[in-house]
Amino acid sequence: MAASSSITTSSTTSKLLFTSSSTSTAARLLPFTTTSSFKCRAFHFHRHRFNPLLHVHVGPFKNPRIVFTHSTNRPPSSFVSAALATEASAKVIDGKKVAKEIRDEVAAEVSKMKEAIGVVPGLAVILVGDRKDSATYVRNKKKACEDVGIKSFDARLPEDSTEEEVIKHISGFNNDPAVHGILVQLPLPSHINEQNVLNAVCIEKDVDGFHPLNIGRLAMRGREPLFVPCTPKGCIELLHRYGVVIKGKRAVVIGRSNIVGMPAALLLQREDATVSVVHSRTKNPEEFTREADIIISAVGQANMVKGSWIKPGAVIIDVGINPVEDSKSPRGYRLVGDVCYDEAIKIASAITPVPGGVGPMTIAMLLSNTLTSAKRIHNFK
Amino acid sequence: MAASSSITTSSTTSKLLFTSSSTSTAARLLPFTTTSSFKCRAFHFHRHRFNPLLHVHVGPFKNPRIVFTHSTNRPPSSFVSAALATEASAKVIDGKKVAKEIRDEVAAEVSKMKEAIGVVPGLAVILVGDRKDSATYVRNKKKACEDVGIKSFDARLPEDSTEEEVIKHISGFNNDPAVHGILVQLPLPSHINEQNVLNAVCIEKDVDGFHPLNIGRLAMRGREPLFVPCTPKGCIELLHRYGVVIKGKRAVVIGRSNIVGMPAALLLQREDATVSVVHSRTKNPEEFTREADIIISAVGQANMVKGSWIKPGAVIIDVGINPVEDSKSPRGYRLVGDVCYDEAIKIASAITPVPGGVGPMTIAMLLSNTLTSAKRIHNFK
User: Fold this and answer.
1) Is the backbone of residue A356 left (phi > 0), alpha (psi -120 to 50) or beta?
2) Closest residue in A to B218 (Cα–Cα)
3) Does the structure show a pLDDT above 70 at A221?
4) Residues of A belonging to the active site
5) By the number of CB atoms within 10 A of the CB, which of A30, A118, A230, B92 ranks highest?
6) Given CB atoms, is A22 within the 8 Å cutoff of chain B?
7) Which residues of B touch A212 (CB under 8 A)?
8) Arithmetic mean of pLDDT, A323-330
9) Which intervals hold domain Tetrahydrofolate dehydrogenase/cyclohydrolase catalytic (chains A, B) (predicted)?
10) A247 shares contact with chain B (CB less than 8 Å)
11) Rounded to an integer, what distance in angstroms lies between the CA atom of residue A359 and that of residue A96?
12) Span B146-173, mean pLDDT?
């Protein structure tokens, strides 16, 4: 859990890595892959013209179904399906820009709240042990909080802390009226039971939104979760801010993790998409993705989704952040998504880049959730 | 919630009607439809030979994908795909028989438990008001409990009871060590807030399994719900008992209600099916069902799923129970499912009838959940 802790960006280093929980498994199992083995297949649209009949179930020229429509059924002029133009290129969904907008909005709200009722939202982060990456994430969160005027609290506990000690700190934050959100930075040292610790966070302050009670409410019609998990919320927010119609569309979510895939599917379904969840046991996942108007991929498999998997005009949200070996990079590696970007950009109508797509949205949503929590606790509209 | 209360069978009258919550909406909006308007379309396989290319996405003769396989990939001799034989007919999944088996198993376990530790499982049902149908359901549950040796408790409260009075009774059952499961018969009188009442049932005794905490655990990998909702659990149990392989198969759930569709989709996904959820906002739902190895339909639309919607060899679980006008019936109506049975039986490899399919499973699962609860509370393996 604490997914917002799991996908984090440091703007200075551009390191965007999965560090915890289920979605990170693939990335952790395949921490470094040679660029060559993950290079997109030789499926270059500028060389071979795309023959939709070979790759796409429903003939794209007959029915390109561009989903970028607002009130009319005609696509805005800037959104031209790749299938309809020779040199067309998808709209790049700029997560960095949107995240900045959201942080600005949060900052304005925080300031309004402070002025009106004298309350400053507070976020507490609990870090156990000395993992460098975890320390970096915590530092980034602290910085992001400061930037928008949210007060940040942290508890740094030694590696050999007992479960009881960690839970004692959580209880302290649960009872602290200055704290409106609590995050436990994952992973925890192996001698500590993660579920026990996470269950100790009171649901009103569980800004990660991963408490089963929250997930249950997310799944149920007529119920409202207290918090929506940050990364999937960020995905949907990107669709909203780019005017992508979700209702009535076919959506495919690749990956069924607790922190991204599953809640993303529930969110899309809440917005009246028809959702299929594709996972490691799915035979021929491309048969599903080829029919999708919207694809959200969160598996941690570098370049898994090829151009041939994508329906012309589809919108692609790529949550994967995978390091691949790259001798040309000063760091020796570079980060790529689950989707073969070079191919996808020529067939999709819109796509998130990696990095700079979903990554920056996670912290923005965490700040937004913390604000929501403070507003709710203080009944501030 | 209290879904087990919503779809109930009275064996004497064969009245199987939706009475509560979301899945019942369609049935209630369309309480009586003329038989003619809901008659399956003229798509008779004994007259016109089925041309798969007209109706099925993946050519069925090329790839009938019969899902009735255990360890081998060859179908058991009794399960012949309709597409491969002229007069073939699907295996009828006998819910009445399976429900009887389950009740017998529960009875044996109850008796074993009583002998070993002297504990008898107890189920409490709370009925508010004078609805005749609700009274019938409560009576049936009581009878079913008695038959397997589960002690039944009931509280019958007048129509004008206050919310507080109802909750007081729930609290009483929460604290009663002889009660291991609590059901609130729905619908409640309109002046009572259903959610408040249902939330009062302690999660350890919520044998309906509809507490959001349970649904959340059902959705999350690595978590286990305390109870699985009765009707969807019954659907999956039928698949299991008929040896239907779920892992790796394509499943389509029609309907996304809290009490059947949504939890059924979560259960199928837990068993490694690739699940698509089709609903009222889905354009061309038949495009999804035609690709499905397993279809679970729970919408309450008489004969909605035509033969042309079904892939040859698919397995069909029909949760719908819809009354259609029938002048030939002494009652003036008869009950049909969501699936056009006459057509489906000629193309599917297996199908549940209505009545006598999923219906009888709901109470069997309720008894099973009550036993599970008693075992857990008393730590009896």
Assistant:
1) left
2) A216
3) yes
4) 141, 185, 208
5) A230
6) yes
7) 212-213, 216-217, 219-220, 223
8) 96
9) 93-208
10) yes
11) 8
12) 97
